[in-house]
Structures are given as structure tokens and as C-alpha cells.
Write a structure and sequence with these properties.
The protein is an alpha+beta fold. Helices cover 16% and strands 25% of the residues. It contains three helices and eleven strands, in the order H-E-E-E-E-E-H-E-E-E-E-E-E-H. A hairpin with an 8-residue loop joins strand 4 and strand 5. The longest helix is centred in the N-terminal third of the chain and has 12 residues. The two termini are 30 Å apart.
Length: 190
């Protein structure tokens, strides 16, 4: 659980927590299997989108981490089978279900972020096969990370990751999940 502190009603943060914020940041990255990067100068607890979160001040930007996920499956509210996430994404979600920069005091996870499992959706929510020359099955690709430009990273049912353009609806060639994790987390530090 998180340390017990009062949540400020009039602002995003109650107060910075005592202790070494850099140690808290490095420990989180290690537990989640993420590369170490950035300088953390503060950590606090906050509420964002109705969820208790930890917030780190890293290189001048706030990085939010949601509460740990209870399992490694995504069950979108579509009539689709449950998605089984690969171990690397399950490991991140087991530490923080939703992890990435806050774009404002109340905005969460829109830019270079791993989405909380409840916000992961098949691309069929955004596009339809055959529309706008879509020649892939959108229901076979789950949006797991956002890029702040309307697109993000998708995980296919074949467990291969691809970049997805929200503007053109195009999918990239497959890349390793490790390279996706490196790309997303690289945006968290300057």
C-alpha cells in the first residue's frame, strides 16, 4: 500500500513525502523492470481520475504511477476474449497499473505512458476494417501505451508490438516489447 497521508482537496498534491525520493524512484524502476533514468527530486501521493497514485517529480515533470494491478489480464468491455498481457507488461502493472507523465494537475497518462489496464482498448474502438483503407484486423491489436499525438503502441494477439498512428491509422512493422518499454520510458527524462 501507499503511505498514509492526507490528500489535498484544492490541489494535486498533499505534500512531498519524507525520505530519499531518488531511492523510491530507482526502486520502482527496478521492480517494474524498467531502465534507470532521470533525476527524481520529490515523491508524493495524490488522487488522479479517482485512483490513488504515487507521483514523482523527475527532471521537472510529474510521473504518475497507479496502484498495483490485481492480475495480468485485460477484459475490455467489448464482446472479445480476454487479453493475456506478456510478462514484461504484467511486471510493470504489478508495480503500477498505469505509469507515465501527467500532462496537467488533473490529466493523466496521455503522453508516453503505459495505460492502466482499464483504459487498454482494442483498436476496433478507433477504426474499422475496410474503412479508410484499413487492411488489418483492428480487434486483434490492443492499445497499451499512448504517445500524446493520438496514437501509441499496440500489442497484437500474436504478442508482437507495433506503433499505431492515430492520424493515418497505420501500423508499423513489428518491434520487440523491450524496445517499446525503452521508447516509452525514455520520454520520462531529459
Amino acid at each position: 500500500g501507499f503511505p498514509a497521508i492526507a490528500i489535498a482537496e484544492d490541489g494535486p498534491f498533499a505534500r512531498w513525502l519524507d525520505g530519499d525520493p531518488g531511492s523510491s524512484w530507482r526502486t520502482m524502476l527496478q521492480l517494474a523492470g524498467l531502465p534507470e533514468r532521470g533525476h527524481c527530486s520529490g515523491v508524493t501521493e495524490t488522487v488522479a481520475r479517482g485512483r490513488r497514485c504515487l507521483a514523482w517529480l523527475v527532471d521537472g515533470q510529474v510521473i504518475l504511477g497507479g496502484p498495483p494491478a490485481s492480475g495480468g489480464q485485460v477484459a475490455p468491455d467489448d464482446p472479445l476474449p480476454t487479453w493475456e498481457l506478456p510478462s514484461l507488461l504484467r511486471r510493470i502493472a504489478a508495480v503500477h497499473d498505469g505509469l507515465g507523465p501527467a500532462d496537467g494537475p488533473r490529466a493523466v497518462w496521455w503522453r508516453s505512458a503505459f495505460l492502466p489496464m482499464e483504459l487498454m482498448r482494442p483498436l476496433s474502438r478507433h477504426v474499422r476494417f475496410g474503412a479508410d483503407s484499413i487492411l488489418y484486423d483492428p480487434s486483434a491489436h490492443l492499445l497499451v501505451s499512448t504517445d500524446g499525438r493520438g496514437g501509441g503502441w499496440c500489442l497484437g494477439r500474436d504478442q508482437r508490438a507495433r506503433a499505431w498512428s492515430g492520424a493515418t491509422h497505420a501500423l508499423s512493422s513489428p518491434v520487440t516489447l523491450d524496445s517499446v518499454v525503452a521508447s516509452v520510458s525514455a520520454a520520462w527524462s531529459t
